[in-house]
Amino acid sequence: MRDGLNMDRQEIVQWLKCSPGEELDSLREKADQLRRLSVGDEVHLRGLVELSNICSRNCSYCGIRRDNLSIKRYRIKTEEVLRCAHKAVKFGFGTLVLQGGEDPGLTKEFISDLILRIKTETDLAITLSLGERNVDEWQEWRKCGADRYLLRFETSNKDLFHRIHPPQEGQPQCDRVAMLKTLQALGYETGSGVMIGVPGQSYDDLARDIELFAELGLDMIGVGPFIPHPQTPLGMKENVKMAAEQVPNSVEMGLKVLALARIVCPGANIPSTTAFATLDRKSGREMGLCWGANVVMPNLTPVEYRKLYEIYPSKAASTETPEQSRDAALIQIKHLGRTPGRGRGDSPTHLEQLTKPIRKEG
Length: 362
Ligand code: SAM
Fold this sequence. Notes:
The chain has helices spanning 9-17, 22-39, 78-90, 108-121, 135-144, 158-164, 176-185, 203-216, 251-264, 274-279, 284-290, 303-306, 322-335, 348-354, and strands at residues 42-52, 95-100, 125-129, 148-150, 189-196, 220-225, 295-296, 339-340. By secondary structure, it is an alpha/beta fold. Strands 1, 2, 3, 4, 5, 6, 7 and 8 form an 8-stranded parallel beta sheet that branches. Helix 8 links the parallel strand 5 (189-196) and strand 6 (220-225). 46% of the residues are buried. The structure holds S-adenosylmethionine.
């Protein structure tokens, strides 16, 4: 196998199509070896807080889309998030991830105040994942102390992206790749990723996604199989157009993408995401950690909200308490002979970047 950045699209496609066996084992081994060399044996634990399931967008894959009238909506209160932050400190986590729908109620001021309070009361690193916001908001949150931002580009196939992610009414189509470059220029440790096996996604598209991870020099990469939600157009199979060479939304395909992401971006932080744990309750998360991942995100969202943040059905850990989520992660890490990470767990890619001249937007 050639080294990550030297792999061409055809070679990536071949890996994606590789059947189980010795050759595929060599992909896992290469990713696992690179993971050990680049980010070590520590598995960083990030406490996840799902701030709001209110969303003004109408993505055809997502269960919290605006037009899903069958869910009860919530927005968490500042004091509740602070309790989660203190729990994260007590559990020894170094990072709090604040994720939510594109909720107009999560205003610039609300999030700024939240960041300032968390930063005053704890030493936690803060990752935001609040969708497409404007530069003014990103700038302000960075000033307040936000460290990282996650925004998946979902698929590099622009036609497919616009089909599954319609723009806000009266607004032009958005360009998430340009947004990621803006976030990098603002100094955020920047993460992105894709869903695997979304209807309409071809092998060539997915291979291009992996090339784009490397071109963007991502600090964090989150990937997971697409899981149909029955209250969404893609889940109801409404206007669903499959690609001629459709990628399956399987755990196996997800693991291949995880491994390839590690190979093309060795120094990135890569979580074993909830989608893996949802599709394979028993070993999904552990398999992710064996195929290149070095991060897990135990859920700290208060239980009464957690079951309402249903982006896809039967989401793993949706009824666990934060303590149970932490304990499950620790047991799995120990079982693999790895160690829980200490400190903030910034990505080596980002730390290296800090010693170079500032990245320019463009
Ligand atoms: N609103 C923010 C955004 O769009 O970036 C953050 C929340 S969004 C729910 C987080 C991620 O969930 C998305 O980037 C998407 O990849 C993933 N997601 C949503 N619906 C999914 C589904 N049905 N299957 C798998 N992943 C899904």
